[in-house]
Design a protein that fits this description.
Layout (H helix, E strand, L loop, with lengths): L66 E2 L1 H11 L6 E4 L7 E2 L3 E2 L9 E2 L3 E4 L13 E9 L14 E4 L11 E4 L9 E4 L9 E2 L10 E3 L7 H9 L4 E5 L3 E7 L3 E2 L10 E2 L2 H12 L2 E7 L4 H14 L2 E6 L4 H11 L2 E8 L1 E2 L3 E7 L4 E6 L3 H19 L10 E5 L3 E2 L5 E10 L5 E5 L8 H6 L2 E5 L5 E2 L4 E6 L5
Parallel strand pairs: 1-19, 7-8, 14-17, 14-18, 15-16, 18-22, 20-25, 23-26
Antiparallel strand pairs: 2-13, 3-13, 4-12, 5-11, 6-8, 6-9, 7-10, 19-21, 21-22, 23-29, 24-28, 25-26, 25-27, 27-29
């Protein structure tokens, strides 16, 4: 997605607008005709599918003087999200986070000369002439196994049996793999002579004292945890997971286990958005449905501001229920609800509330629009708080398998299925109609099709921007 690159990790204010449909790989020229191989003919005029839409200086959309661009709303959020202070965690608890310190090794790795595999420690010159036809026989003077042991040594014309990871006897400069011998116990017949240093790990070959083991900004995965343990670090300073509280507003909402009365719907969003926040890397807490009592509502919102780095509220932006929520939010600070030039979910809200000015993002109550809004606005904010440099999902260009329509002045996000074309590249098909908001269809999708504000029509066979929705990606 857009050009976040290196400034995404410094927590500074973002300058300029972000094109949230920008492509990370080279694009072919947009097609204006029908399917590949179809006879050419007149098509509805459309502007190119590449490049940002020319915008007024205030960043508003051409759709309406009161409608904000996606970039403008996103930039306001990204400029406001905090950078949580680093915390020290046990190395296993740090998995998946970014290292917040330069870890310098106080140890050499390996800490001693050791055998790299099972075999016999010898001097290379003693076995240089060994062949299968004419093996070299050497007396075996002992055995070195992995674990604490006294240093040992061998002299010319001798061999010592060694296990992988065991201390190498002084005097030896090579390990002959056991498969190149007859595995003798008192005497061993060596059938090939490897050169000096073969199958030997010398002290400090991997890391020497004072070497950096893990750098600031390195994602901590299994390999980094292995290295941290090896250099003696059981704890490490990391960028913590942001704490995200997820709440739903609406008098029509009920819990999953409650029977549905006419007009009521299950609170889907608090589950879906909490799951999406966890997938993005946050420590998400699902509070659930906001209470209908004004005093209790204010108490819940204030308590979540005290325990969270970011609060996410979903709900319909009209009606008495939202008026009550908006009033409670207004009592905690400035909250702006705006029309954003996107579909689905043009109604979006954002503010910094409470004594700590915690970011609060409001997304539409319709579940499909809520998850699209999460992808566009909330996921980049979480990744910025995590210190990630890649804030946005990468995008690809794909051939549209169908004729697509989009409202002028609004960036459209359609759920679709993208697959590789046998001839190379990608082909994408929308899942359902643009006006549909069906959960089962959304669950079958593996991507979002992004159509820019100034494109109203894409012919079948034309190129579109596609955002694959990979878990954890």
């Amino acid at each position: 997605m857009p050009g976040q690159s290196e400034d995404g990790s410094n927590g500074g204010e973002f300058r300029g607008h972000r094109d949230t449909a920008q492509v990370d790989m080279p694009m072919a020229p947009p097609r204006r005709t029908g399917p590949v191989g179809a006879p050419s003919g007149p098509v509805a005029p459309q502007r190119a599918l590449t490049g940002p839409v020319p915008l007024p200086a205030d960043g508003r959309s051409d759709a309406s003087p009161l409608v904000r661009t996606v970039e403008r709303h996103l930039d306001e959020i990204l400029a406001a999200v905090p950078q949580p202070d680093p915390i020290e965690l046990a190395v296993l608890d740090a998995q998946g986070l970014l290292c917040a310190e330069d870890v310098v090794s106080q140890r050499a790795l390996p800490a001693f000369d050791q055998a790299a595999l099972d075999g016999y420690a010898v001097r290379a010159e003693d076995v240089a002439d060994a062949t299968v036809a004419r093996p070299v026989e050497l007396p075996v003077v002992g055995e070195s196994v992995a674990g604490a042991s006294e240093p040992s040594s061998i002299g010319p014309g001798l061999a010592m049996r060694v296990a992988a990871g065991a201390m190498l006897p002084s005097g030896a400069d090579v390990v002959v793999p056991a498969v190149w011998t007859d595995n003798g116990a008192a005497r061993v017949a060596v059938q090939a002579g490897p050169p000096v240093g073969s199958y030997v790990r010398r002290t400090g070959d991997d890391v020497t004292p004072g070497d950096p083991a893990v750098h600031v900004g390195t994602p901590i995965g299994p390999a980094q945890i292995s290295l941290l343990a090896a250099v003696g670090r059981d704890r490490v300073l990391v960028r913590p997971r942001p704490r995200v509280a997820v709440l739903s507003a609406g008098t029509e909402l009920v819990e999953i286990t409650s029977p549905l009365a006419p007009g009521q719907v299950v609170d889907v969003n608090s589950y879906a958005l909490a799951a999406a926040a966890r997938d993005a890397g946050a420590d998400a807490y699902r509070w659930g449905i906001l209470p209908g009592d004004q005093r209790r509502l204010a108490e819940v919102l204030e308590s979540q501001l005290l325990r969270s780095d970011l609060v996410l509220v979903s709900g319909t932006f009209t009606g008495p229920a939202f008026d009550m929520v908006q009033e409670a939010l207004a009592g905690l600070g400035g909250m702006r609800v705006s029309q954003v030039a996107m579909h689905p979910g043009p109604a979006q809200g954002f503010g910094r509330l409470g004594r700590d000015e915690v970011p609060v993002i409001c997304v539409p109550g319709e579940p499909v629009a809520a998850l699209v809004s999460f992808e566009v606005f909330v996921r980049p904010a979480i990744r910025l708080m995590l210190g990630k440099r890649q804030l946005f999902r990468r995008t690809v260009q794909a051939i549209s398998g169908q004729h697509l329509l989009s409202p002028l002045g609004y960036r459209q996000y359609l759920h679709g299925t993208v697959m590789r074309h046998p001839d190379g590249g990608y082909v994408v098909e929308p899942v359902g109609e643009a006006t549909d908001a069906l959960l089962a269809r959304m669950a079958r999708a593996n991507c979002l099709i992004v159509i820019d504000e100034d494109v109203t029509e894409v012919a079948a066979g034309g190129l579109v921007t596609v955002m694959p929705l990979l878990l954890g990606g």
